[in-house]
Design goal:
single chain; 173 residues; alpha+beta; Immunoglobulin-like; 6 helices
């Protein structure tokens, strides 16, 4: 798994990955030549420390530029974040009841069905004036949620089933 840091406004300078106490230097390297990142129009370089595979706490130091806060290298380091995101999608549902077995304190009856969307004045057009009722698929609300959930799993490559005892219930509760 690649391990990199994107560094602004520095190029071809040394970097070090140390223990959080800075007592041991585990990786020494040089930032890549700076390039312009098209998304922000910033000059950025890459510190590649992919050779570091031992689980533990580390800190990236670039003399004259700065240092990171301590970070972790572990298997499934983003698991709690991914499960928290999944819980967020679950608790924000309105068209399905949240059952006590999964939602505990936040259990509630079904909210409003996700079958219609009211066009807000900030999204109104001549073809869709404010107050118009349209389907949720026409508004594009459901696909965004589906894409986000799929992206969370695909991009993180976290084997959720292994951490949820085979059920969504154990991740939600």
């Amino acid at each position: 798994m690649p391990k990199i840091a994107i560094v602004r406004n520095a190029s071809n300078v040394p970097f070090y990955v140390t223990t959080p106490s800075k007592s041991d230097t585990l990786v020494k390297g040089t930032l890549t030549k700076a390039q312009t990142w098209s998304y922000s129009n910033e000059s950025v370089s890459i510190a590649d420390f992919s050779s570091l595979i031992t689980p533990g706490g580390y800190q990236l130091i670039i003399p004259g530029v700065g240092q990171t806060i301590p970070f972790q290298i572990n298997q499934h380091v983003h698991l709690n974040l991914a499960i928290g995101s999944l819980k967020g999608y679950y608790y924000q549902r309105a068209s399905t009841a949240l059952l006590p077995a999964q939602a505990g304190t936040w259990a509630r009856a079904i909210g409003h069905p996700d079958t219609v969307v009211l066009v807000h004045s900030s999204a109104a057009t001549l073809q869709r004036p404010a107050g118009t009722i349209i389907s949720c698929l026409e508004a594009g609300t459901m696909p965004a949620t589906i894409i986000s959930i799929s992206s969370t799993r695909a991009f993180q490559r976290i084997p959720f089933s292994r951490h949820m005892n085979g059920s969504l219930n154990s991740a939600i509760s």
